[in-house]
Amino acid sequence: xLELQGDxxxxxxxxxxxxxxxPLAISKTYTYRVPQLLRENIAVxxxxxxxxxxxxxxxxxxxxISDKAPERYEAKYIIDVLDDDPIITASQMHLWEWVRDYYMxxxxxVMQAALPTVFKLASETKIMxxxxxxxxERAALTDKEFLILDALDIAGELxxxxxxxxxxxxxxFPLLKRLLNKGAVLxxxxxxxxxxxxxxxxxxxxxxxxxxxxxxxxxxxLNRAPKQQDAVLAYLQLAKRQTHISxxxxxxxxxxxxxxxxxxIEKGIFLVExxxxxxxxxxxxxxxxxxxxxxxxxxAYEEIKQQFLSKPIVLLHGVTASGKTQLYxxxxxxxxxxxxxxxxxxxxxxxxxxxxxxxxxxxxxAVGVYHSRFNDHERVEVWQKxxxxxxxxxxxxxxxxFLPFQNLELIVVDEEHEVSFKQFxxxxxxxxxxxxxxxxxxxxxxxxxxxxxxxxETYYNAKSGKYGLVELMQRYGESILPQIEIASLKDHTKNxxxxxxxxDVLLDEIKNALSKKEQVILFQNRRGYTPMLLCxxxxxxxxxxxxxxxxxxxxxxxxxxxxxxxxxEEVIQVxxxxxxxxxxxxGFGTERIEEELSVLVPEAKIGRLDxxxxxxxxxxxxxITDFDEQRFNVLVGTQMVAKxxxxxxxxxxxxxxxxxxxxxxxxxAFERSFSLLSQVSGRAGRRNKMGKVxxxxxxxxxxxxxxxxxxxxxxxxxxxxxxxxxxxYPPFYRLIKIAIKHKDQQQGHACAERLGIALKEAFGHxxxxxxxxxxxxxxxxxxxxxxxxxxRDGTSLPKVKKAxxxxxxxFETNKVNKGAFVQIDVDPY
Length: 829
Known about the structure:
37 strands; GIY-YIG endonuclease; primosome; metal-binding; 829 residues; six-stranded parallel sheet
């Protein structure tokens, strides 16, 4: 609108509004008003500080910008804009929306999963005074502003609610914003940028000593200070082969000590320069790309490239140790040569340590690693480098699909069958493999799925022509598939040929391997020492106070642990039910296997690889390195040992009890048993020595074990597909699991029954349940589940989801169901 003010025309700027994504489980974006001072700073993908609710501040992401005010509520002002440039790209936002729609969750939940913690900045709502705020500026504050600072001088910090009480008014954020703008206060560490560049001190020789004669005179002048002379000599030697010499490196090589180095710096002989360095990358590594593909690999490589011409997704079905990683490397080389980017997904953090070293040998520091074991600063550094295009190969676990990729050309999903790619809690309950496929669709990139035991759904898609299929059924080099033998626990126990948990067959193979300086891997898919304690008198078993599970004894801590909620308690010596002291351990985990084996085979040097032994950031890498360098010769572990590890000296694999895998109550039990047993077996004989696998079991005639012995994936696939089709399971049906949680058992049951009736009215026979799951109570919530089966052919999944959301909305808004929480899990497997 053009108006006149005196003789000066001006244009009244239209008020702008932004729709933002908050890191909360709310169903919609929320609209805020943009102050005139900030309107030039806003852009989609930037973070803004907003107030949501009565007293909470959040860093939200701008989703959309418009000039339309919300109809049902008055828009608050955004407080500040955090970023100079957007941290979220349009492609990322597109992916977020797909994850929201497909997995039936909220955009804020996707944001929580996608962003590093540093970017989320959820407010603790604490106010602190700035230490160096000038006295003269303090005198210019208003009475209320001065009152807040006066209170902070006394208390040190105040909550927002404390400020509300202090001033006797509810609207304190504009006032706090003014204090923030003046630099008088800080609003919680959570509302400040916590990412800082890592600096490292490097030593430079003063340019006064550039030529050889000046260097000779310098060394002569230090004859009476031998430590300082050593430091200069060490510097000159290092400078011949490298351009950057760090302070720590010079101290280590010269052995001169801090005082000598300090003296040289004070004299001006050495200069100190602090430079920004990466938290992730170590020293520069020489690239090495000299390996040659075998005939079978070369053929598979050419087939993959041919398949990519007509199909964007290709499955590489290659037996264990067939050299799939080398094919990935060749494909990555092509992509990098074209200046494009690659995402290499692995199912677990555990696998990255070995694979990253192999990729770094080939691609140097073009490789970035991203997973949850990294600290906040490292994750942000990778994020920024991917956004800026500095990192061309991203190696990561499932959360890496949410990075801000530029020019993405290829996604490799290694071990694509792994259940670890699925996030079960909290929402979004996404599958990284399927999300990666949609990510590739956004970027028009190619996807290569690799596995020795592909998921039934993936192999079905490949056999039906939806995906391309390349098979590599020959091991690389001279290695051959291991010999697999079944040891009957029933027969060996009957004939007294079992020592502790080991049959004589397995013990003999372990001893034989160790005598030849070879290595052994033992697999037991349960961590801890014993799954439960049992009173022999009355049958009492200690249970978790929050969950309906028995507590597991961990000898390393000397306590009983709940593996669902983390509850711990001291080991009981007397039964609290009957007072008996006759308590015994039942079952066994990795800790007990480790202990028993050390008694039976004293010469064994044993390491353990499970969740408990790998909690530290570098603990997995340390265990793997020690095993690879033969500091110990037996590795006892859970399913972590099955996932793509490569050890040249391992010749014997022992599976302590296969029955626990086969008899698990799940429609994928047989598929997963075959996969896990095959993958564990594949760790043996990966060079030129024949490997041997001993599988201990009671059900020795089970078809899965026979298929594993024959290495017959195709037979397993055919039998599983026939059963799945008959009983209406994937790949022929889609599954959506609905879980109802309630703190009251009876009310929870009643709510589940009501929801079951409503769903059956909408979907008929497609609904199963409600049922009480195997673990009926977790974290003090009683659980009931319903299963919705939807035909893949002829049924619109979006329409099904819309009908399901409508039914759930009616359920949740009915007051009789108050206290019930509903969780949706699409593709719950």
